[in-house]
Amino acid sequence: MKLNKYKNIEIEESEVDFINDMNTILETPIEIQIKNTKSDYPSHIIVENSHIISLYLYGDVFHVPDSIQNLQNLTQLIINTPKEHYDERSILKIPDSFGKLKNLKNLEIISLADLYLPESFKNLKSIRRIKLAGVNFPNQENLTNISSKELDFIEIFSQDLRSLDAGFFKQNIDLKELHIHSGCLEEISEHIGDLPNLQKVDFSGRNQLKSLPNSICKLKNLEVLNLKMNRLEKLPQEIGKLINLKILNLQKNQLSVLPRSFGELKCLEILDLQNNKLKELPLNFGKMINLLELDVSDNNLELIPESFTQLSRIFSINFDSNNLTSFPENFGDLKNLQNLDITGNKITSLPDSMGNLQYLEKLKAEFNFIRKIPKTFANLKRIKYLNFTGNEISKLPDIFQNFGQLEYLSLMDNKISFLPSSFSKLKEIKELYLSYNNFSSFPESVTSLSKLQRIYLQGNQISTIPKEIEFPDSLIYFNILINPLEINSTLLQKLKDVEFLFTK
Predict the structure, then answer these.
(1) Quick one: CA dihedral 160, 165, 168, 173, positive or negative?
(2) 199 touches 175 (CB < 8 A)
(3) Nearest-angstrom CA–CA distance, 443 and 422
(4) pLDDT in tens, 214-242
(5) Closest CA to 408 of 373, 376, 452
(6) In a 10 Å sphere around its CB, with 0-12 CB exposed, 13-18 middle and 19+ buried, how is residue 409 labelled?
(7) Cβ(190)–Cβ(163) under 8 Å?
(8) pLDDT digit string (tens) for 450-492?
(9) CB-based contacts of 68, cutoff 8 Å, min separation 6
(10) Complete DSSP assignment for 443-503
């Protein structure tokens, strides 16, 4: 039986003997997937099949036979042993003959077994990508058997990998991407600085790193550095030497201060500092002129440096859950800003210059102590989302006719008692939150909002809704709970197609 017209074959373990009994001849390169393999790997299928270029083994795979060496055209090997096939004594054995796979380029092993790599692993001269997921390394020096001048990508997910020693780095100097995820990783060798071609480093995911080697600052070609969810207490003082770094993720660490050189990261575009212990940003923070996105939420920031307003390209800023009390007066110089989150701070006022944020589309300012919305906000003609929930606002400026694109507005939990006349001009508004304010009469201007879908007025002092009021056809939800409202049949009839919540 000839299979030369096929490029990909998927077979079950039970079919392996059938194929060999039929004297299958593979005359062209082919990909084979073997599913539900038992503990004895079906070695006979690969003895003569030198045309196999890709082999995927799924099931109870803990032993790779010596005959694997016959697959001289094999470029990709994937071994996937699901969790249900594993027990605590499982060992994945790779034979010495494995090193004879001279054309193997991509190796992926997904297993919870103990993995031992033979010395011959160093002979895989064509290997370019290695992914080892879930495996354990009883002998961690065994990792030094990964050695190839062609290797440019390695990713390891392991629960017991504590360190990467010098040998690992010395033997893989052309590596471009390094991903290590381990619940135990505590130390990185200084020799990481000897990998001049590294472009992406990812040590994220509940590792235990408290510091980084200073030599990491020698990686001039590094573009992405992901250190999310470690225990970093400090960064190397010369981190600013990473002159090509574009993405830096330091989320969920223990950083209380950033090095002075931090501002020298002039190519940085995305910076995530969420959930650390920072009280301040470096004075030269604004020198990162290419920064586009910044998340510094869940820290202890008390002040924004004056240089911050030099970030002329930035379009997204998250200051959520800090201790900020004010903003630089020229904050409006951030002309390209589109999204700003200042939720959960101690801000009492916003600078008038914020009206210059001509591209601002979303502002979240809930749970502060803001007393008024600046009249200059009339210039925010692109704003679509405004949230001032939980502030001290008692009077609104009569500028709402300028918010022609506003779709969402929340003024919940303030001290507002009436709406300005321009409020009726919000022609695009769909969701309106006015709960827990000081309204004693129904704000009739909301009935002019032709696209309004949801309105929240609970927790006020509204006692009546005039009978002549007509609600927009777009309305689907009306919440007026916790008001001393008198409900009449006329009102109920008008709202018969609306989800109407009221206090009975």
Answers:
(1) positive
(2) no
(3) 12
(4) 999 999 999 999 999 999 999 999 999 99
(5) 452
(6) buried
(7) no
(8) 999 999 999 999 999 999 999 999 999 999 999 999 999 999 9
(9) 46, 74, 95, 97, 98, 101
(10) -GGGGG-TT--EEE-TTS------TT----TT--EEE--SS-PPP-HHHHHHTTTSEEE--
| Residues of the chain scoring pLDDT < 50 | 1-6, 13-16, 18-26, 39-40, 44, 47
- Alpha carbon distance 266, 291 (integer Å): 8
Please report the sign of the dihedral spanned by the C-alpha atoms of residue 500, residue 501, residue 503, residue 504: positive
Checking 434-439 for CB contacts under 8 A at 24+ apart, the result is: 434/460, 435/459, 435/460, 435/479, 436/412, 436/460, 437/411, 437/412, 437/413, 438/394
- Side-chain-facing half-sphere of 196: CA atoms under 13 Å: 1
Report residue 301 as tokens: 């920031």
Within 8 A by CB and 6+ apart from 499, the residues are 476, 477, 478
Distance (Å, rounded) from C-alpha 151 to C-alpha 127? 6
Cβ-contact 392, 413 below 8 angstroms: no
- What backbone phi and psi angles, to 5 degrees, belong to 216? -65, -20
AA letter at 164: L
DSSP state of 213: -
What's the pLDDT at 315? 98
Token output for 105: 């380029």
